[in-house]
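Below is how a single chain appears once it has passed through the pipeline. First comes the sequence as given, then the structure the pipeline wrote out for it. We keep one example in the README because the format questions we get most often are answered faster by looking than by reading.
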Amino acid sequence: MKRLTALTAILLALTTQAVAAPARPGIDFRAELQPIDGFGFSMAFQRADLLHGARGLSPAKQRQVLDLLLSEDKGAGLSILRLGIGSSTDRV
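Resulting structure:
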């Protein structure tokens, strides 16, 4: 009889905890929590030389690459560009 009473008490405690436990909140991906000003890319560390310079692209290809990065109609529409500010003159 003691086992039955103990088992009943345990089941009652587990059932009470399950009912009293708060429901897990769902994620609402449509909720606006923080505004995003834009997305961008980096041309720091002499990466701009890939577009122009001695080893760079032709002006037509430069325009095509920049359109793919910056144009909202033809490309990704990125709006932030990170440039490196340094004193190095080498093109390593």
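The chain has a mean pLDDT of 77.

See the next section for the split statistics.
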